[in-house]
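pinned: reference chain
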Amino acid sequence: MSLPAEAAESPDPAVRVAVDRALSKRRGDAQREVEDILDATLRVAARSAPSAPRVADIVAEAGTSNQAFYRYFSGKDELLRAALERGTDRVYSYLAHRVAKASDPAEQVEAWVRGVLAQVIDHTAARQSRAIISNLGEQAVAEAGAGGLGGVRDLLRAAVRAAGSRHVDLDTGAVFDLTFAALRRHAQDGTAPTPAECTHLVRFCLAAMGIAGGG
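pinned: its structure tokens
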């Protein structure tokens, strides 16, 4: 006995389950492979700086193959942009976690400022970031970081607004620019802010907004 055409075209539930399971495993394997390649990129870039990392060295470090590499990335520039974008996303997640733990707006602003500066206090992370950024053009760096840094700014704006600022956008922009200027200066010099410098910057920002706090 033949089945109606529409029934014959509908996959059996057991078939759907089997296909979904296979695709899920394939996606998981691909995600782990890409993560391995991106992690290897950071390590190789930090070791080879100021020279650009070679794809062959990244592939060897990741324990994968050229075929696997080019399955996910068209070339080294795309890989470096992906590494920078992932780094920016991780900074956002880190700051969101720190800010969420703070109990009042002043502490949230402080958590944000200290969290940003922590990116150069961690020497390994700072060295890896410098290596990636130095091998990308300014436009590529701006494009890769635009989305993530927009979210980072939004975290600060929410804290500034909650603190009762009468000039939310101006105060947010001033604190953002000042903190990232300190970050870039230390990143370029290969240095890290001292605890005293971090505390002074926090107090300066809070005082400029008329907010008490900053330990």
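why pinned: The CA atoms of residues 36 and 145 lie 21 Å apart. The chain has two domains: 1-73, 76-215.
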